[in-house]
Amino acid sequence: MKVKVKNMSWDNEQKKEIETIKERKITVRLSDADCDRLARKCGEYGLTIGELIENFVGDLVGGTYSNGSDERDYANKWFKRCWFGMFPEETLLKFLLYTGYDVYDDFLEIIDDIENGYAELEDYKKDQSVFDEEEIEFLKTDIDDWEKQIAEIKSDYLKKNEKADWEKEVEKVNEWWKAKEM
Q1: Structure pTM?
Q2: Where do the coiled-coil regions begin and end (predicted)?
């Protein structure tokens, strides 16, 4: 008799994801009428609004729980047919995500490191007892490396989006990150 072996890595990954399930607060802007329609639609099927959203999101992103491949397919078709799916802006955030950068570790944290590094250099100029010369040289090398990393990202992004306002795009990435973390 042949024994069917489950995909152990997905089982383990799903268990890890399940451990992180918790209540999240997401703000949705709806008219009173749409809110009532949504509540009625959910009520007709014995669902809460939260359960409906949990299920839709799971299908849309191929999440921890999904209702099946057809549902995932339809959710993605819906997404791609909406204005935001058909005509996405070529933003820095999209560029970072599509090219595989970790938005925080590979981008925002490095920008913070550069700013903090320059602040430490200013502190050193005011009071040289704060750091020794060797520490300052290491810091300058780090700042130079970080600036090269950001310059490479900036150059790659602006090659495809010449008219983009880099500072505004960086701010949008910051805003997205803050909202994501909330």
Answers
A1: 0.75
A2: 136-163
pLDDT digits (tens, 9 = 90+) for 130-143: 888 999 999 999 99
Report angle CA 121, 123, 125 to the nearest 5 degrees.
70
Nearest-angstrom CA–CA distance, 85 and 134: 51
Tokens of 177: 């990150």
Element at 14 (helix H, strand E): helix 8-19
Q: How many helices (H) and strands (E) does the chain have?
A: 9, 0
Going from N- to C-terminal start, the domains of the chain cover 29-86, 92-174
Alpha helices (H) in 45-130, listed in sequence order: 49-61, 69-81, 83-86, 92-98, 109-126
State the pLDDT at residue 7.
59
Distance CA 147, CA 114 (A): 7
